[in-house]
Amino acid sequence: MPPSTCGEYYIKKLAGLTVLANFFLLEPFLYYLILLEKLKSLLKQIEVYVLNRRFHYAWVILAVSFLGVLAAQGVRFSFGAFMESWEDYFATNRGTVSAISFVSFLVFGFSQPFVGKLIDKIGVKKMFVGATLILGIATILSYFVTAVWQLFILYGIVASLGFGGASGVTASVAVTKWFHKKQGLALGLVEAGFGAGQMVLVPSSILLINSYGWQSTVLILGIFLIVIICPILALLLKSEPLKAGMTALGAENVMADGLKETSLPASDKRNFFDRRFWFLLIPFFVCGVTSTGLMDTHLIPFAQFCGFSPTVTSAAVSTLAGFNILGTLVAGILADRIDNKKILTFLYFSRAVTLVFLLIFSSSSSLMGVFQDFPILLIVFSISFGLVDFATVPPTIKLLSEYFKGQSIGILSGWLFMSHQIGSAIGSLFPGILFDISNSYQTSFLIAIVLLVLAGVLSAGLPRVSK
User: Which CATH superfamily is domain 1-263 in?
Assistant: First the structure.
């Protein structure tokens, strides 16, 4: 519990920051400046290689975007690691802490169209760097919180604006600007940053919290974002190929590429009456409900409800994250080779089948007993669901860029990702409410299956891309 008086509390906080302050003084700070200079030198060397055409700078953009997504979204996925510590520290319940996540999803979601529009004005680089900086500052400031309502402001609102700016919208726009060829592969690789962040930063946060406490952990994460990630993004990201004196990968020539990038009209209002737009947006909303909302939020509580040990539960979550990366990469590769509407149809129907698996084994105490006796069944679910989880993103964005070629992909993808995050908010909140009412996830699984079948039907109804 926090100290009884704010004065004493902040004195202790400032005293605790003395060691942190020493990190930025004298010799360590000089080493950091030297590191930045070496990074600038590396950038110059990369540009020389590019000018010599030894490799294309688009791959640098992809790598940096991947790192930015890994860092920012990895911190977002780490929310669950802090829940128990925050419950104990602020003497509150899980419902209150979960509400912070709900607010965060909504802020994240509603920010996406504005993020897309702002990218068109200020560019990918300023958006990515600025959002990561905001996120890092909010993360460090959470060290000073004295009441849970302050977390609603810092995490639920401020940090979530950072999450929204350093999101799939920004990374997707960067990829579509720099990759005219191998775009599906590039989208798959950058989307894999979400799974990589989940694999790297979530267990790291758990380890740091167990070793040093949640307050030291937020300081470490905030410093990581500001001191390491922000400089890399600022030095290596370039918003558009033409402005950098380069061409996009697969572009015919600099001038044609530049016209496409610098004269994009705002998205046409007629798009909101276009069947293609809604047949992409509604399934992507369902994707948010069933993936980030239902499974990423409730898989651990469901496994605990079934009686699985913490070791088995952790293994299941890690397995899901790992196969998330694999599924996303495969979907990205296939997006360049086969009809993307077929990929989406397969993914949504397959995800419905994986949830039927859970629906069956949680339908009775005897079947749940079999489920618990054979933990490998939970791992099998994690593998199958992971393969079709984030894999929907590359074909969805690829179709969006092909259907609405010549328009602002930033604004259009912003609407798509907003629908996904609103779905995530709903998918994280209502299964918990339904569980409190029925002491079961059966209704939630059944609703998710019906929604996924609808998403599969809508995806099958998408028209072919005109050549």
Answer: MFS general substrate transporter like domains (1.20.1250.20)
Going 59 to 62 to 68 to 71, the CA torsion angle's sign is negative
Residues 290, 426 contacting (CB under 8 angstroms): no
Burial of 159-198, coded b for 16+ CB within 10 Å and e otherwise, reads bbbbbbbbbbbbbbbbbbbbbbebbbbbbbbbbbbbbbbb
pLDDT per position as a tens digit, 33-80: 666 666 666 666 666 665 555 678 888 899 999 999 999 999 988 887
| Whole-number Cα distances in Å, 20 to 29, 201, 212 | 12, 21, 14
Residue 316 near residue 299, CB atoms below 8 Å? yes
Residue 306 has pLDDT above 50, yes or no: yes
Mean pLDDT value across residues 369-398: 91
462 phi/psi in degrees, rounded to 5:
-65, 140
pTM recorded for the entire structure = 0.74
| Range list of H helices, 52-182 | 58-77, 79-89, 94-122, 124-141, 148-153, 160-165, 168-178
Q: Cβ of 153: how many Cβ atoms within 10 Å?
A: 16
Residues 249, 250, 256, 261: is their CA dihedral positive or negative? negative
DSSP string computed for 271-289: GGG-HHHHHHHHHHHHHHI
Sign of CA dihedral 18, 162, 185, 235: negative
Mean pLDDT of 426-444: 86
Domain boundaries, the chain: 1-263, 266-467
Placement of tokens 């998918």 in the chain: 427
What interhelical angle do 340-361 and 376-387 show, nearest 10? 160
Tens of pLDDT along 69-100?
Answer: 999 999 988 887 787 788 889 988 767 887 88
Task: Decide which of 3.10.250.10, 2.60.40.10, 1.10.645.10, 1.20.1250.20 is the CATH code for 266-467.
Answer: 1.20.1250.20
Which amino acid, one-letter code, is at 321? Answer: A
CA 151 distance to own-chain centroid: 20
Residue 448: count of CB within 10 angstroms of its CB: 26
Q: How far apart are CA 288 and CA 5, in angstroms?
A: 42
Query: What local confidence, expressed as pLDDT, does residue 296 receive?
Result: 81
